[in-house]
């Protein structure tokens, strides 16, 4: 199972030793946790949201992603932590788009203005089904039904997590629909490489010469702008900082013109470097401004606070359904949506 599936997987073998009960969902359903390991990396994947609940290296005790041992946290302040969000990640302006002449009104779940991460019943807030797992990988699936949150199409999604012999975590996402629709999934882990309370000691490099300026609702205002001579210039490794008077919650337009695996960013702190490679054209970076998970503790044993982690979300560009010049998120019946991302951790 270590190789990514080229086609949709059927129900396979489940190694029961890798699976344990983790919590109870809102409808009373059992939430399971699948543990995999390889190459000095250990990961835990939760069926709720196909969530990367924990990731660690054997050299140290601290987690490299934010998360909690209490499932209830994921129904509250840790919504989206580590989840696969969709069917359309990020924000859609005005909670609507027009497709083939028909206007689709979506759930406006952010300030009653925009649609965020597919709405309140998006893929990041659903219990996925475990299809197969072994010691180093697992495959999960969920169906997002036609009309849920206002989105057209019965969309079947599969996620395949695998750790290779180098300890690199690969995530493959595939999806199909029975109606023309928009799809743009994103993995939403918050990273903290040194286990400290904030990102003060983190440095970052992003393979992007352009980014998307946004309005007060964090919707792109139009064409990409150069990062040169701005706070968004991370083309060289430099200390992480938020832009003046605002959160860093922006899409970086990756310098790649194809859908092949390409470098997105590198982050360093403590003894580790994280390299993210993906097939996607955009990387949404969010600096966790305003984060407060009280009363729930994280992996540190304390609630997470301001700037506790860095969300690195490979995806297409935000609000693409309403921005015809952006990379298209349109998908039709008979086509297969595919996304691959590598999270490579090196010891410095």
UniProtKB/TrEMBL annotation:
Pathway: Carbohydrate metabolism; hexose metabolism. It catalyses: alpha-D-glucose = beta-D-glucose. Keywords: Carbohydrate metabolism, Isomerase. One of its GO terms (molecular function) is carbohydrate binding. It comes from the Bacteria. One of its GO terms (biological process) is galactose catabolic process via UDP-galactose, Leloir pathway. Beta-D-galactose binds at residues 90-91, 188-190, 249. It is an enzyme of class 5 (isomerase). Gene3D superfamilies: 2.70.98.10. Belongs to the aldose epimerase family. This is Aldose 1-epimerase. It comes from Maritalea myrionectae.
């Amino acid at each position: 199972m270590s190789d990514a599936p080229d086609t949709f997987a059927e129900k396979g073998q489940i190694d029961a030793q890798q699976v344990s009960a983790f919590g109870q969902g809102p409808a009373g359903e059992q939430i399971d946790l699948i543990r995999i390991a390889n190459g000095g990396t250990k990961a835990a994947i939760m069926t709720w949201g196909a969530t990367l609940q924990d990731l660690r290296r054997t050299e140290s005790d601290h987690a490299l992603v934010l998360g909690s041992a209490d499932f209830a946290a994921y129904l509250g302040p840790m919504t989206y932590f580590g989840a696969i969000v969709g069917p359309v990640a990020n924000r859609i302006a005005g909670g609507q788009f027009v497709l083939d002449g028909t206007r689709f009104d979506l759930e406006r779940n952010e300030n009653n203005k925009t649609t965020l991460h597919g709405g309140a019943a998006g893929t990041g807030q659903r219990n996925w089904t475990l299809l197969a797992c072994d010691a180093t990988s697992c495959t999960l699936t969920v169906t997002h039904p036609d009309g849920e949150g206002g989105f057209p199409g019965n969309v079947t999604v599969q996620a395949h997590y695998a750790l290779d012999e180098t300890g690199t975590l690969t995530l493959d996402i595939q999806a199909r629909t029975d109606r023309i629709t928009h799809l743009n999934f994103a993995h939403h882990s918050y990273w903290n490489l040194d286990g400290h309370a904030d990102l003060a000691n983190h440095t970052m490099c992003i393979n992007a010469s352009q980014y998307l300026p946004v309005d007060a609702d964090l919707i792109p205002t139009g064409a990409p702008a150069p990062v040169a001579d701005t706070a968004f210039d991370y083309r060289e490794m430099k200390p992480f900082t938020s832009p003046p008077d605002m959160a860093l919650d922006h899409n970086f337009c990756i310098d790649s013109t194809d859908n092949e695996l390409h470098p997105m960013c590198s982050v360093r702190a403590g003894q580790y470097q994280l390299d993210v490679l993906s097939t996607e054209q955009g990387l949404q970076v969010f600096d966790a401004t305003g984060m407060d998970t009280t009363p729930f503790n994280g992996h540190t044993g304390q609630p997470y606070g301001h700037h506790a982690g860095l969300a690195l979300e490979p995806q297409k560009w935000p609000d693409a359904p309403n921005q015809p010049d952006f990379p298209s998120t349109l998908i039709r019946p008979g086509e297969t949506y595919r996304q691959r991302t590598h999270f490579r951790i090196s010891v410095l």
